[in-house]
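> example.struct
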């Protein structure tokens, strides 16, 4: 990889690749597995990058590495540089977006985020035959790993050492119930109200179950559903409570029938990420990234 010049300093893309891998996996050992490189080489590249930047990017405690404040600020810029470099390489390999493009996504993203984006994608790249598959995050992630999907939108909770990722949308998750349900600020406020959930591979289900068990009580009864429309209708009818992105509520016609309960930030804040296998990039993926534009909207 060629070096870049930033603020008068040379910066190698391989150094950035190692930095992002360590930041996302939490260790040099895990980063070496993701990148298929020796640990000593990754450590050398981290030290070289910090020397080029003139400041440390990690707090080092024993063998552990944790991003410091400078590293956290630099991470988004490093991801952006790597993404742009990959887009350029993809366009050189296959400069004309065309043919089948298999895209996976959570249902919530399809309902609330993708209509306008995909309309623009179809208008700009009519030769691409887009196949959209709706699945929970972990199911979709494994499909991308196996090559069954070219890319996917998943919750940031779904992590894979094999895949590259780009944060795209920031979601605020809210607990929804019938309007006459008492206010919910802690799990005990749920009483014996069932949880309305999707399949076990759903990242939002895992968040809701984790929060609901914080009081140490018995496992709560779950009602497994298959669409947000059904979940919201059941919540409005008093059947149970569900965890739903605010963006989905914004397009739900009967949201006035629901009560919204704000949860702690650790549960409520999530990023939707675009994931893909770095060995299977192409012009179609680069075209989608170009349409997405600025991340975290």
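> example.seq
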């Amino acid at each position: 990889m060629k070096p870049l010049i930033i603020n008068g300093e040379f910066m190698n893309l391989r150094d950035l690749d190692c930095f992002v891998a360590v930041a996302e996996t939490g260790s040099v050992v895990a980063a070496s597995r993701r990148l298929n490189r020796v640990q000593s080489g990754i450590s050398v590249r981290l030290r070289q990058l910090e020397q080029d930047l003139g400041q440390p990017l990690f707090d080092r405690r024993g063998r552990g590495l944790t991003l410091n404040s400078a590293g956290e600020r630099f991470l988004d810029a490093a991801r952006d540089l790597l993404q742009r470099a990959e887009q350029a390489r993809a366009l050189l390999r296959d400069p004309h977006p065309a043919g089948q493009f298999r895209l996976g996504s959570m249902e919530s993203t399809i309902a609330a985020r993708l209509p306008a984006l995909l309309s623009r994608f179809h208008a700009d790249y009519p030769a691409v035959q887009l196949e959209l598959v709706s699945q929970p995050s972990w199911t979709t992630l494994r499909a991308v790993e196996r090559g069954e999907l070219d890319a996917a939108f998943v919750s940031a909770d779904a992590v894979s050492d094999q895949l590259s990722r780009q944060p795209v949308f920031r979601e605020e998750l809210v607990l929804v119930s019938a309007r006459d349900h008492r206010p919910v600020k802690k799990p005990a406020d749920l009483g014996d109200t069932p949880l309305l959930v999707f399949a076990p591979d759903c990242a939002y289900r895992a968040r809701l179950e984790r929060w609901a068990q914080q009081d140490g009580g018995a496992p709560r009864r779950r009602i497994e559903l298959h669409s947000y429309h059904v979940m919201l209708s059941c919540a409005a009818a008093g059947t149970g409570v569900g965890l739903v992105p605010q963006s989905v509520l914004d397009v739900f016609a009967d949201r006035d029938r629901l009560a919204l309960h704000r949860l702690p930030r650790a549960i409520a804040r999530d990023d939707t990420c675009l994931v893909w296998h770095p060995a299977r990039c192409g012009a179609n993926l680069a075209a989608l990234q170009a349409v997405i534009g600025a991340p975290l909207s």
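> remarks
Residues 95-169+271-292 form a domain with the D-Maltodextrin-Binding Protein; domain 2 fold (CATH 3.40.190.10).
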